[in-house]
Specification:
The protein is about 30% helix and about 20% strand. It contains 14 helices and 16 strands.
């Protein structure tokens, strides 16, 4: 039987979901660079031929660790679905002679190199500058049109984003972004292979989006993501995912599959995504490409990742389009024939719709809840109505346990301050948006109020 080394780290689709799909294709050996969620421990023990938790000293040379473990088990393929491990796994596959994302994988991870590559290829994107010091940030603020967005070059999940509206905000933004990256590293949300990656930043122009120019119905955000895969260097688009409007500064609140774009609009978006992915020279991996939508048909590529979309993006695609992307990619990496989509699936081909909502302590207008609340999903299911045909569930491994205090939302920390991740299945995308808006509006009223002692903690 074939053997797959699964390198687990924070981020990506839920571990329990991914493990199930990999184990259906091969014997799976788990290399756990992050602690296993408690809700997944039993699943991992049942599905995995082995589970190795490396020591801190072993983790210092991550590529060598992955290579050695793959050789020890006789791995036929090595996979990861975490943003923080993709570069190390790609380099390890190169050394092992196994199919992987390829030698240019870092271009899809370091936002500075990514943007420079797109600039060389003339691909539409916001104006930007790499910054490595507070003084360089001052210089960039003087050279680029305000407002600007400061972001960490190796971050994910909108972590450490800071909006700069004038030069007076530079010092505070620089200090806060560096603090958040240090805090994220303590939580395990940090690049695992590149030393001192938390010190690398870039700043970019904030371009004006216009969801109204692209969507016929209200409630959509002004950007989409093209989900896809690269097979032997050939980009294969799978579908488009849409968003609800972000929470300030640019924290994702909800992702919805499919995105309700017209056929012509979808074709234009996919073409830009293809140019962006092709420019990076990837070999074999999932892709997740975010594109900002502007007025009068304008588009800008925001970023691409050499892995599938995180949170519930992949499970949503399987539910709506019947495509097990993780299983298909594993089959391909093992040298088995796979029938990939020849074009991106359209909303007309979807079986209903699915969406995932990040529970943050902010209301529909983005304002903080007036008091502290305790997360309790049974209360949510009893008190929040959803549409006929809709099904609401919670993703346990991405959520706080019932009874936990909902964190205060921190704009700089982004998704690090989430309380839970909810999944909704519905008859169509607009119903997902409507039900999620109801959920967002009611959460600060139906969740139990925290005690004074809990709130002070």
């Amino acid at each position: 039987m074939s053997k797959v080394l699964f390198v687990h780290a924070k981020g990506g689709p839920p571990l329990g979901y991914a493990l199930t799909r990999v184990a259906a294709k091969s014997a799976v050996h788990l290399l756990a660079l992050s602690a296993l969620p408690p809700s997944v421990a039993a699943t991992a023990e049942r599905l995995c031929a082995s589970v190795l938790v490396p020591t801190e000293s072993e983790r210092r040379d991550l590529v060598s660790l992955i290579v050695a473990r793959a050789q020890a088990i006789g791995a036929d393929a090595v996979v990861t679905f975490s943003e923080y491990a993709v570069v190390a796994v790609a380099e390890a596959c190169e050394k092992l002679g196994l199919a992987g994302a390829g030698s240019s994988c870092a271009l899809a991870r370091d936002k500075r190199m990514m943007r420079r590559t797109w600039q060389e290829h003339g691909i539409s994107q916001p104006r930007f500058r790499p910054v490595a010091s507070e003084q360089e940030l001052y210089d960039a603020a003087a050279a680029l049109p305000l407002p600007l967005l400061l972001k960490a070059a190796w971050s994910a999940g909108s972590t450490a984003h800071q909006v700069i509206r004038s030069s007076r905000e530079v010092a505070e933004a620089w200090g806060r972004s560096r603090e958040v990256m240090a805090e994220s590293a303590q939580l395990g949300y940090a690049e695992l292979h590149v030393a001192d990656a938390d010190a690398d930043f870039l700043v970019e122009q904030i371009v004006a989006g216009s969801a109204e120019d692209w969507f016929d119905e209200p409630g959509w955000g002004d950007y989409v993501s093209v989900e896809g895969v690269v097979i032997d260097g050939d980009f294969r688009p799978v579908c488009l995912s849409g968003r609800m409007p972000t929470v300030e500064p640019f924290t994702e609140r909800a992702g919805i599959t499919p995105a309700s774009l017209s056929h012509v609009a979808q074709e234009r978006v996919v073409a830009l995504a293809r140019d962006a992915v092709d420019a990076l020279g990837l070999a074999n991996c999932g892709t997740h490409t975010e594109i900002k939508l502007g007025a009068e048909g304008q588009m800008w590529v925001i970023e691409t990742a050499a892995r599938f979309g995180g949170a519930m993006t992949v499970p949503q695609i399987e539910e709506v389009f019947g495509l097990d992307l993780i299983g298909m990619l594993v089959d391909h990496l093992l040298g088995r024939p796979v029938t990939w989509p020849t074009r991106a699936r359209t909303p007309g081909e979807a079986r209903g719709a699915a969406g995932s909502l990040v529970v943050l302590a902010v209301d529909g207008a983005g304002d903080a809840w007036p008091d502290r609340r305790v997360w309790d999903f049974p209360t949510v299911t009893e008190a929040v109505p959803v549409s006929d045909g809709s099904r609401l569930s919670v993703v346990a491994e991405n959520s706080l346990p019932d009874g936990a205090l909902v964190p205060v939302y921190d704009p700089a920390a982004g998704a690090n301050t989430m309380a839970a991740l909810c999944l909704l299945s519905a008859v169509d995308p607009q119903t997902v948006i409507r039900d999620f808006r109801t959920l967002v509006d009611l959460l600060p009223h139906v969740l139990p109020v925290a005690s004074p002692e809990e709130a002070r903690s």
